[in-house]
Known about the structure:
There is one protein chain. This protein is mainly α. The chain is built from three helices and no strands. Residues about 75-85 have low confidence and may be disordered.
Amino acid sequence: MRPEWFPIMTPLQPAPDAVLHLVKCGCSRERCSTNRCQCRKAGLPCTDLCSCMDNEEDEPCNNAIEEEEEMGSESSDEEEEVDVDDDDEDDS
């Protein structure tokens, strides 16, 4: 630690309430395949906050977003941006 830096205690929360109340699961054995998984129960995919994502050597989580799905949603966003740019060129 740099000599001019030192910790300051604060009464504030470590993060906003919305972040502190994020849904995350603690699944390990069942790999999120039942409604005991808090994410699946809430109808949400598991995220990096979940303990099921900690160990890549184990079987993959059954409730995770597939990489292809993530890439598909990103490419559709890019297409929308291109469409908007095309519309702007037509107006000028």
